[in-house]
Amino acid sequence: MAMHSLVVGPSGTTPADVVAVARHGARVELSPAARTAMAAARAAVEDLAARPEPVYGVSTGFGALAVRHISPELRARLQRNIVRSHAAGMGPRVEREVVRALMFLRLKTLASGHTGVRPEVADTMAAVLNAGITPVVHEYGSLGCSGDLAPLSHCALTLMGEGEAEGPDGRIRPAAELLAEHGISPVVLREKEGLALLNGTDGMLGMLLMACADLAGLFTAADITAALTLEALLGTDRVLAPELHAIRPHPGQAVSAANMLRVLAGSGLTGHHQDDAPRVQDAYSVRCAPQVTGAGRDTLEHARRVAGYELAAAVDNPVVVPAAGGRPARVESNGNFHGAPLGYVLDFLAIAVADLASITERRTDRLLDKNRSHGLPPFLAGDAGVDSGLMIAQYTQAALVSELKRLAVPASVDSIPSSAMQEDHVSMGWSAARKLRTAVAGLTRVIAVELCAATRALELRDGLAAQGLRPGPAARAVLEAVRAAGVGGAGEDRYLAPDLAAAEEFVRAGSLVAATEAVTGPLG
Description:
By secondary structure, the protein is mainly α. The chain folds into two domains: 5-199, Fumarase/aspartase (N-terminal domain) (Fumarase C, Chain B, domain 1), CATH 1.10.275; 207-271 and 280-316 and 331-415 and 426-520, Fumarase C, Chain A, domain 2. The chain is built from 19 helices and nine strands. The chain has helices at 15-24, 32-49, 75-86, 96-110, 119-130, 149-159, 175-181, 193-198, 202-232, 242-246, 251-264, 284-287, 289-311, 340-368, 391-407, 429-460, 473-484, 497-508, 511-520, and strands at residues 5-8, 27-30, 90-93, 134-135, 138-140, 164-166, 172-174, 319-321, 330-332. A hairpin with a 5-residue loop joins strand 6 and strand 7 (172-174). Helix 1 crosses helix 4 (96-110) and helix 9 runs parallel beside helix 16. The two termini are 31 Å apart.
């Protein structure tokens, strides 16, 4: 676990904070301001709990059962029971980083002073995170409305010392044992606290924030591999001129074109031909690369803006509205838990991912087709016919692209009623987030296959070196780095899966971007 500590206040949490906790084990602690805000909200809840009038979430049942007034002696049982009954997920476990993200985001909301939980409940959640204890959360159980109910319930169950969790050593054990080993006392929930632990969009938001972080690097990686392919195909970089992209001022397009131009700087291969048929224009998959990747960049910026709004929110139902303007603090029911804003952008990103993968695969296929590769051997094989080269690598890439197209079908257009028609419209945002995670992993692999093909094709252009025609400095740096990373080059056929896996990790870890930027400087 990392020793870096994040102080969680009533506001101010950043996307980088979420990634630091989810992926890098940053420790968390509550600020004094958060404790003050939480204490004030708790006092308001306890005041309302002492009154005879029913208050939703404080002294009533939940959902379709909200009509029942719950007597004081049953309220602790009510809060305990809602956690137990809602911890009803099924299917495989979700990833550790997803669970840590949703727990941290729920802690952030508790610290806002709008949920009415006691500070000690938030302290317990922070202690569980800091101990490296990860509740077992299942794939299925959230409809993305009333928040991510089942996933958050499994986390709340761990705070109560019930259910199962993964320890720092990776073993799944009873939560009670893990809490005891780390000196953490299970919480005994009081009025509203069970509901406050469950009613948030934290799973959707956490996955969105991590996808945004990943896609920022992948869009730059795609610019690099597109430039390498253009170079290997002896294409022209004139279409990347800034003045051409200024005529159509989409910001992302300009960034991608500039990135490609910098990768191609100093290349001796661009604008030359290996065959007798002159090319006035390159194919769309090469020429329009900045337009497609750039559109993805602009989609990402929209998604980041939406994620920023949600990160600044305190999502709960009911919510504590602090005293202001002479009015006392109050607890109000609301619909802020609906995941539509997140579901829409999660689906939008999946569409952008699928289209970027599609154009990437088309470039790869062009490199492998001797009729369109301008002098390269069939399938970039060492001895075509005896060797198959990268033929089946492109099959794998095509299978991934087909899967990404299926994953681009929106989840957020679906809705299925629940809770006896009380919750009669839901967002399916959790499902949108889950399929986007799969899509991001798929795009990484698709870009990795193009990297394998483009670097091999550049090596096969060595015959042009005698004419003074060599790849540019950035391409040469990538070639050296990717070979050092275990991705083999041209030659006799060999067991190819390890090469592809090494290329995938090279892209995923940011090594492709780093190797390029060592020559070009920071890319957009």
